[in-house]
Amino acid sequence: MVDKVPMTAGGYAALTEELRRRQQEDRPRIIQQIAEARAHGDLSENAEYHAAKEAQSLNEGRIAELEDKLSRAEVIDVSKLKGSTIKFGATVTIVDEDTEEEKAYQIVGETEADVKSGRVSITSPIARALIGKTVGDTVEVTTPGGGKSYEILKVAFG
């Protein structure tokens, strides 16, 4: 069974662009670096050659990873979602019941998560606690720093 990888259209576009860049720009540049280093002679003590081969290995590994994720991508058009129940793609405004600090998070796919930008992975503890809840609900989230309690203030899509 192939596991689908949920992501927004923006996340899919970002992965597609990274794959294009790695295949069409990085790969030829690295091949050129290997050829130049090889021309320097003895490969056993050629640091430039070994560094270029290492870069090639890392780049090819990332290309394979991107191709896999894109082949299993399930692109979800967040603009078409609506409702009051929290699900993938929702932007949720919560308030910390201890500090009264408000935060807004969009629930996105693992590849798009960036907490500093307010995007949390669907598999994160906070997203798992929020899924299926509605405005007014209180959720308990176990964090590395201990348990936190949040009240859901707002749910939006798009």
UniProtKB/TrEMBL annotation:
Residues 5-75 form the Transcription elongation factor GreA/GreB N-terminal domain. Coiled coil: none annotated. One of its GO terms (molecular function) is RNA polymerase binding. Belongs to the GreA/GreB family. InterPro entries: GreA/GreB_C_sf, TF_GreA/GreB_CS, Tscrpt_elong_fac_GreA, Tscrpt_elong_fac_GreA/B, Tscrpt_elong_fac_GreA/B_C, Tscrpt_elong_fac_GreA/B_fam, Tscrpt_elong_fac_GreA/B_N, Tscrpt_elong_fac_GreA/B_N_sf. This is Transcription elongation factor GreA. It comes from the Bacteria. Residues 17-27 have a biased composition (Basic and acidic residues). Necessary for efficient RNA polymerase transcription elongation past template-encoded arresting sites. The arresting sites in DNA have the property of trapping a certain fraction of elongating RNA polymerases that pass through, resulting in locked ternary complexes. Cleavage of the nascent transcript by cleavage factors such as GreA or GreB allows the resumption of elongation from the new 3'terminus. GreA releases sequences of 2 to 3 nucleotides. Residues 1-27 are annotated as: Disordered.
